[in-house]
Amino acid sequence: MTIRHLDHAFSPRSVALIGASQRPGSLGALVLSNIVSGGFAGAIFPVNPKYRDLSGRACFSRVADLPQVPDLCVIATPAPTIPGLIEEIGRFGGRAVVVITAGVGNEDQLRQRMLEAAGRHGVRIIGPNTIGLLAPLVGLNASFTHIPARAGSLALLSQSGAIVSSIIDWAESEGIGFSQIISLGDMADVDVGDCLNMLAADPRTSAILMYLESIPNARKFMSAARAAVRLKPVIAIKPGRHEQAAKAAQTHTGALAGTDAVVDAALRRAGIIRVNDLEDLFSAAEITARFKPLERGRVAIVTNGGGAGVLAVDHLIDRGCELAELAPQTLAALDAVLPPNWSHANPVDIIGDAPPERYLAAMHLVADDPGVDVVLVMNCPTALASPSAAAQGLADVVEKGLINGKPVLATWLGQFAAAEARRLLNSAGIASVDTPAKAADAVSILTRWRRLTSRLQRVPTTHETIHVDRITASAVLAGAAGEGRTMLTEPEAKDVLSAYGIAVPRTLTVASVDAVEAAAVDLLAGSARVAVKMLSATLTHKSDFGGVVLDLDSAQAARAAAQAIHDRLAATGVAAALDGFTVQQMIVRPTAQELLIGVTTDQVFGAVLMFGAGGVSVEVVRDTTMELLPVDDVLADDMIDRTRISALLAGYRNQPSADRGAIVLALKAISQLLIDFPQIVAIDINPLLADADGVIALDARIEIDLQRLDIAAPNPALSIRPYPGEWSKQLEAGTGLFDIRPIRPLDVELYPRFLDSVTVDDLRLRFLVPTSDLSPETLIRLTQLDYDRDIAFVALSRAEGELAGIVRYAADPDGKRAEFGLLVRSDLQGMGLGKALLRHLIAYARARGLAELTGIVLHENARMVALCRDLGFTIAALPGDPGRVEARLAL
Q1: What percent of the chain has pLDDT over 90?
Q2: Whole-angstrom distance, CA of residue 186 vs CA of residue 305
Q3: Which of 14, 133, 500, 695 pairs as cysteine with 669 (C-beta 3.0–4.6 A)?
């Protein structure tokens, strides 16, 4: 993860075009013309040994002849020249390059040689195979787009150059401008995660738009996206929504998990707003730029055409929005200002002859209703009233797109009659959409934006932890691996689940038909019925072979069932795959729902958790949802809520609700299992019975990858870094015992009492400015970390369980440097706790490969300055700031 040297590309002061030309229609001529004509104020250096001058500027034979090192080099020369040019640029001191050239692939190892040259000199490469780079705020158009992009506040990242050109064309017609446009191309070096890190910190960028075809580094992408979304809206198109990644799989989970379903889960987890086409991309950008996210989307519709209002209602409900229920006092007030034949309900049909005054009266009244979040104003052209007059009336009262603090959306239907009205609305800054469907989309964007961002700030509500027996699970997995098997038998899989706290029926494994009878006698002593199942390490879908017989109430019937299973396998020629039988207690829970919990491994995002309706028809019903691992209580709850079967789990008629907490714990247990054992690549628990008494797994499969046996936990293949619990320890400081561990979201509950024990002066010394309190939002941000780039360790007193001290660092996106902070409760200072915490942080930083820790300290904070010196930090005054010093430790 790095943004190193990307500032040279995003805000260049000078540009060199290597391969500049004057040959009409050539790539070098097109790019040079765009750079020169774009209004770029910095130095422009054409480079081509064939020319002495180009476009009125001196042309240089090679990069080394340039009078200065350019911030940005753009290459438009044949592919075989690229590695040598990168080497030349690097030696000259250049650090940022856009490679427009296509065909820099594996032939003659061009790509590898290019990257090796870049690596030797720290050169950053955008591309190859890109349309170029545009920085409209500095007038730079280093691309071969057919028109320039106007300056604005939207940033665009696209892997497709053709999409860049199309978007610029469309945006120009709409008057939309950009802060940055990056055509990413093949992403040999700089990828979407790097650019997200840059744009998140760019104050000139209000929203980030993305066209994604692939995501090369999932963990970098997720970390960067989650950080960016906390600061500004990120909106993405990811094509290929209907491509299925797993046409044949050994588990139901694998069969149900298409590539797009995983991408959707990743974008949702990152808080990114996903849209399906280019028009929606800009609509979402416009709506998020105009309005704040909405907790609820209760819409009041004011229209002069009843049919149009009803159509809008359908579209709103289709998108999960709500039609506002107007209060009785609002209806009474509307009665007083509207004709007697108005609709007397929402939609508020003010009749086709409505003049502007009637529109405005109705709008103000519905906007005053506390049950209304959004006002949608619609106009259908009639001969009885002017659409333009109504639009002008709206423009006169709506301020910054709001009325009474609530968003106003305008839909003027028609083409000819509405054209002037739309112009008036747009010039007044009112969000104007063409159709009721687009209006519903806009409301949906605002509510979805709130849900996505709030998910990043929600705190789990339970303290329940997963009690696991890793030794037992490890032994089972090692046993299968020792036999060279990638698929665990059903009993082995259930043993692993049981070790992670998931209940399973009592099951006996036998080798022969004759042994089934004795096993059934044993189990029938404590159960009314048993089930007999085939046992095979290779035939995983038992039902497909008639390998499951249920509801057997005698030992003789069990033996006969086993014999029948054997005969069926023999008849199909696969009897050799039969390893024996399992005899299992029949679990009779008549009110239980059949669920599925599964794990599949995506090539990009690693292990992904699935939950939904289970049973033999799972692939037909397809009521499932996915989530990237790891998951906590909040995410597990969300997974349940996103399924249709959640309504049945909540109970209905005389059916009691299922134990939701037990389902959540099961999801968390599987999440922890995947963190602990990177060799597990697939899990299928189907069915998992759930009722008021809890959950129990009736059938299970677990698949492992023998090539991943030596990978240490926590699982490095997860796209979101798991909680680093291995960095917990116990500490004795002064007369007290303390537990030091990484911070958890639930620790937000410990902060109020902790802050009560910290003096105002100590808070000032820690945060460098006077402060007496931290907002709830700040506390959530301090406790919900992306463990891949940030860390905080808390010290908890053994005696009280109270928060005693916190040390943290926030790393830059390079992952090489981090800024640290330390705060110890005022009444516990002077006992060595601060030094112990900071030492622990330093050890962690070294283990993570950081090169340097830095911290800004007030000069008057003598104890902190002395502590840093004692631990090897160098202390230096900050230039121009005599009140502060910088502590710096090389790692």
Answers
A1: 61
A2: 51
A3: 500
Cα–Cα distances in angstroms (integers) from residue 400 to residues 175, 207, 291, 316, 442, in the given order: 18, 18, 9, 24, 16
Q: 593-708: what fold?
A: D-amino Acid Aminotransferase; Chain A, domain 1 (3.30.470)
Same fold, 288-455 and 725-890: no
Q: How far apart are the first and last CA of the chain?
A: 19
Residue 267 and residue 605 in contact, taking contact as beta carbons nearer than 8 Å: no
Task: Look up tokens 């106003």; give the residue.
Answer: 408
Taking the domains of the chain in order of start, what are their residue ranges?
Answer: 7-239, 288-455, 470-580, 593-708, 725-890
Query: What three-state secondary structure class fits 368?
Result: helix
What pTM did the predictor assign? 0.86
Q: Pinpoint the alpha helices (H) of 292-383.
A: 306-318, 328-337, 356-368
Asked whether 786 and 722 are in contact (CB, 8 A), the reply is no
Is the Cα torsion angle 214, 178, 37, 47 positive or negative in sign? negative
- CA distances to 510, 516, 537 from 488, rounded to whole Å, are 16, 21, 7
Burial 432-444 (b: 16+ CB within 10 A, else e): bbbebbbbbbbbb
CATH class of 725-890: alpha beta
Q: Counting beta carbons within 10 angstroms of the beta carbon of residue 657, is it exposed (0 to 12), middle (13 to 18) or buried (19 or more)?
A: middle
Domain 7-239, CATH number (from 3.30.530.20, 3.40.50.300, 3.40.50.1820, 3.40.50.720): 3.40.50.720
Question: Average pLDDT of 216-239?
Answer: 89
State which H helix or E strand residue 597 sits in: strand 593-602
Pairing outcome for strands 817-824 and 852-858 = parallel
Cα–Cα distance, 618 to 857 (Å, whole number): 59
User: What is the Cα–Cα distance from 740 to 748, expressed in whole angstroms?
Assistant: 16
Residue 708 DSSP label: G
Beta strands in 341-493 (DSSP E): 348-349, 374-379, 402-403, 406-412, 431-432
**Contacts made by residues 472-481, CB under 8 angstroms, sequence distance 24+:** 472/496, 472/498, 472/499, 473/499, 473/500, 473/673, 473/676, 473/677, 474/677, 477/677, 477/679, 477/680, 477/704, 480/704, 481/679, 481/704, 481/706, 481/709
pLDDT at 788: 86
pLDDT tens digits for range 318-367: 888 889 999 999 999 999 999 999 999 999 999 988 888 998 999 999 99
Q: Which two tokens stand for residue 886?
A: 């910088």
Band (3; pLDDT cuts 50, 70, 90): confident
Cβ neighbours, 10 Å, residue 832 = 15
DSSP, residue by residue, 476-534: HHHHHHHTT-SB--HHHHHHHHHHTT-----EEEESSHHHHHHHHHHHHTT-S-EEEEE
Torsion of CA 268, 274, 276, 282, to 10 degrees: 180
User: What is the rounded average pLDDT of the residues 170-195?
Assistant: 90
Which architecture, in CATH terms, is 288-455? Answer: 3-Layer(aba) Sandwich (3.40)
